[in-house]
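LysR family transcriptional regulator ArgP
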Amino acid sequence: MLDYKLLAALTAVIEQGGFERAALSLGLSQSAISQRIKLLESRLGSPVLVRVSPPQATAAGQRLLNHVQQVRLLERDLRSDLPEIDTQGGMSRLRIALNADSLATWWAEAVSGWCSAERVLLDMQVEDQDVGLRRMRNGEVAACVCATEQPVAGARSLLLGQMPYLAVASRVFIDRHFPAGVVPARLPGLPAVVFGPDDQLQHRFMQQLGLPGEFEYHLCPSSEGFVRMLSAGVGWGMVPAMQVAGELRRGELSELVPGQAQSVSLYWHYWRNGGQLLAGLTSELARKVPALLG
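Structure:
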């Protein structure tokens, strides 16, 4: 039989990013958290954590974290069916990984009504759409939005739709670097703006134009900051068409190469045995998101 106090300690260390914050979240001493992790490893016969900063789960730890995520969801169903055993009396919390562009555009409208009706608090972990599945594989989240179709073991994936990205820049940037009109072949020598090390949209756009995939770029890990950097003329970059519709209409940003959009497929990944709560959220997303993405 699993000791869920030990699993709670493991989960807190991963979710809180360290032993000290895990101890605070559980109302225990840091020493107590350390002892519980050691006892869990002793009973399991293998390590569950890699002691780095922040701590990372081993393969065995990831299996346990996945189990905890699913147990939490199933316990929520049980409390709904048997309210007399609900000693918490509060709202449920659901950890989800999603890309910053979805968070900045369609996500809030898609989940607002559901969160209110189901009394759910979302703990959103922002990751690039190409790597969001990593957190789910590591047992850190119950579901994720990402660009990968293949689900992890024990999970399913659902295509939500296509998000088109446009290569845009400000009028100031275009006038400075292309006074006689945009020449795509010059883009490799001009500064771009990239969301983070895993963001390959700009690279794929260059390859689509038959240009070298290497270029100089600023790193800006914020969707809102990204658009402001482009509007200020710092560089060019790929942004969701729906996020900059107003800027394009007002002439604050312009497409560099019209007709060369990059479409990113967005998939919703969720645990197969995630209970009624996760099934309800999945149904809500399947109903709303395709229309929001257009």
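The chain is about 45% helix and 20% strand.
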